[in-house]
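Appendix B. One record, verbatim.
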Amino acid sequence: MTNTKKYYLRNPISEKEDYERKLSAYKSAVNRMKYDVKKKTSTSIYKYDISMLSKWMQNPVLFEKQLRNISNYFYNVSALYRLIIRYMALMPTYAYVINPVDIPDKLDVAKYKKQFMKTGQFVDKLNLPHEMIKAMLVAFREDVFFGYEHESKDSFFIQHLDGNNCRISSEEDGVYNFQFNFAHFDSHKEDLLNYPEEFRIKYAIYKTGKDSWIELDSDKTVCFKVNLDFQYELPPFSSMFESIFDLDEYKKIKKARAKNDNFMAMVQKIPMDEKNPDINKFLIDLDLAMTFHNMASDSLPDGVQMITSPMSIEAIKTEKSRSDSDYVNDAYREAFNEAGVSQFIFNSDKNTSIGLAKSILSDEQILFSMLRQVERWINRKLKKMNGQYKFKVKMLDVTVFNRDEVQKSYLTAAQNGLPVKFELGATYGITPVDFVNKVALENDIFKLQDALIPLATSHTQTGDEASTGRPKKSDDAISDSGQTSRDKDSDNRKKQG
């Protein structure tokens, strides 16, 4: 009988070595499993990080450019930040009147009227409601607006200059002048074609070896600054930058938690040899287990993932004391508080009339200080106008919020004989030139005062019993408690009827 022997090409593999080999193969297989339980959130909004911001805010003088750039970036990516800036910039109506500097004893009335209309036509050409909105949008983003005037016989517009290339250098008649860094054109020579002739002339002067920072002609420049109490530039709403990061972070957490709450993991367990627990032996081959894992994974819908493991898997969730929406709402409130603007202005469902009015009043004071700068800029130009008689512009403190109140105030003053008819017209958007022309058109040319019959009002007819008493206030002119009382009275009348 022939003895049979077994031969191995290599040394025989022990059970322990076999287990380690299979375990290594299992680890590789697990690494091939594709499932995402939770993504890590980070305290950054795209290209900016909160640590960068903290460094810049600690030394705003050194990091003016960085703070200006992040403010412009937030204006593009943060709807809340953009909303607040537009709220401030669009609030004024830019209504104005033209007043005489003085009226001499010997007055040529015809020449005086002609000079008044010439002045008014010049100011009308500035197109303040449009040009100033553009300027204020930049000023409330960057703190300073730098502009250069382009003027022809019948048109005018202001070219915005990049704040990174400009700096305030002097003050004339209460108006800021500024320098431009002409080294900018060393790497952007093609841009020179988009700038006025003064830039090409002064760029040539700079190339002769002069300092690159050269002051521009003050007759052609426009400069407004929001933070007058700072010598350096600081975006007016930089205090809410950190809150914008927080708001973005809480939104990410809320979104990630919503995904996790809708996530399901299905676990298939690899059977093991329970009779011999010491050797940790799988009862089926790992390659076969992974084949079934992949087959199952391919058939699962989105949000459901497959896990293959020899161990039991248990999910552990932390308890939440507050909902994620509460944290997001808190972050919104904090952002508004940091900006110094009432959140209720943009949420009519939760307004409190008294607190809201006080908040708007505070915001209006900031705008009125900007109107004083606009006023002085225009009057500096009017001082240099040719003519025997001089006039000056007065920007009225009128906003979209106080317009009705200001109109009533001027109307009462006009009825009592005060000379505020131009001011009253300005609150309705009628410029001084338009006012004079419309009065002449209606009264002298078409004589509408004779052709039109006054409409029937309480002033032109006898009141009846039902219409006696004080006129009813509008809904937006009463307090919250008044609105509640009015609603109750209305309900009682319906029940009695």
